[in-house]
Give the backbone structure.
Amino acid sequence: MGITRKTKSVKTLLKVFEQTNNAISVVELVERLRREMNKTTVYRILERLEDEGMLHSFTGKDGLKWYAECKECSPSRHLDSHPHFQCRDCGKTECLHINISIPSISNYKIDSAELLLIGQCEDCLS
Ligand SMILES: [Zn+2]
Ligand SMILES: [Zn+2]
């Protein structure tokens, strides 16, 4: 698969991410883009943008899939081994740009790691 042609649908979807620093759940994306494209198109574009290192996904609580923009990824390598935070009160979900070290375990090969921190965001704390 080549570099994504910036079709109108791709642009529309990327614009949703440009408007926020937070992650967006698949459910919310489908809802927000309801008028522009159908669910299947949203899923297909998300998958493609993830392949190309523009978005990354992770699993939030309740098993929902979330997407966020990648900062320094390329199609060949996803560098998003950062943890994610999810607020239990308002649901705000975001990338935490801190490094976590993934343990190396002898005789095992680790391909990816996911760490979800759940708690209260600064707005809900105050
Ligand atoms: Zn909150
Ligand atoms: Zn992230």
